[in-house]
Design a protein that fits this description.
Blueprint: H1 28-74, H2 84-118, H3 120-162, H4 168-177, H5 179-182, H6 191-196, H7 211-247, H8 252-259, H9 263-270
């Protein structure tokens, strides 16, 4: 909750209202104190602007007084009444008003700080819970993406199988005439074939004679196998690190704060869930 204001100097502590996107995490006492401080800071901004304008008016009045005096002397006339004294009086009043508002803002800042301290644990729990929710949402998005990619590969394999070996009508007629002949050993649509062939068996690729495609198929299979192995190893390393941190004296909330996960998710990971 820090701010930087060029015209306030060291008059105010570096405390500002809560950002709008965090107000929903705060209790009513913090929201009220934050809104009060925002209103008083706005008043102080106006007072500072008025003081600056009054200072500029003093400089302008001094210049006009001097010019008027020179002209009067040259014309051998009485010097007109000076405007600067009245401008200085207004500037002094504006500065006093701004200084008083600084004190008012200081009180509002202290009130907000006290409210935040009192609600510190509630704010931390709310922030941790939202971080956990965001992490779960991200995981769900990743799961949906992986499912979509898997579905995409399956559908492409289906289309490749359906388009291989002649027209669909010809294959359908062959199957009706002789169901046993209509099912080829390389056809992934055959339930018996799917059960008998392991995921790493190249025969799952329907009748591909081209060496480049066969190699690409094997590369894709090996990449997926490496991904599964590396993910399992990474998950194991994370689980061991969390368990070690807990044994070192960190609470679940401490680990959650360090990782951005919810403390309940930390417990699940340590348990291997």
């Amino acid at each position: 909750m820090s701010i930087a204001t060029s015209n306030r100097g060291s008059r105010l502590a570096a405390v500002s209202p809560l950002p709008d996107n965090l107000l929903d995490l705060a209790p009513e006492s913090v929201r009220e104190a934050s809104a009060d401080l925002a209103a008083k800071l706005a008043r102080l901004d106006g007072a500072d602007a008025a003081a600056r304008d009054a200072g500029d008016a003093v400089e302008q009045a001094v210049a006009e007084d001097h010019s008027a005096a020179v002209k009067a002397v040259e014309a051998d006339k009485p010097t007109p009444k000076a405007k600067a004294p009245a401008a200085r009086e207004k500037a002094t009043e504006a500065e006093r008003n701004a200084a008083a508002l600084v004190e008012v803002v200081n009180v509002a800042q202290n009130r907000l700080l006290a409210a935040v301290r009192e609600a510190r644990e509630q704010l931390a729990d709310a922030a941790t819970a939202e971080l956990g929710d965001l992490a779960r949402q991200a995981a769900e998005h990743v799961d949906r993406l992986e499912a979509a990619l898997t579905r995409r590969r399956t559908l492409r394999g289906l289309l490749a199988a359906l388009g291989d070996g002649g027209s669909l009508e010809g294959r359908a007629a062959e199957f009706r005439a002789n169901p046993a002949r209509g099912r080829r050993r390389s056809d992934p649509l055959v339930p018996e074939q799917r059960a008998a062939v392991s995921p790493g068996d190249p025969s799952r690729l329907p009748e591909v004679a081209d060496d480049t495609r066969q190699k690409a198929w094997r590369d894709a299979r090996d990449a997926q196998a490496r991904f599964v192995r590396e993910r399992a190893a990474t998950q194991k390393a994370r689980r061991e690190a969390f368990a070690k941190a807990q044994k070192a004296g960190l609470t679940l909330r401490d680990i959650a704060e360090a990782t951005g996960l919810h403390h309940s998710r930390i417990a699940e990971i340590i348990k291997g869930q």
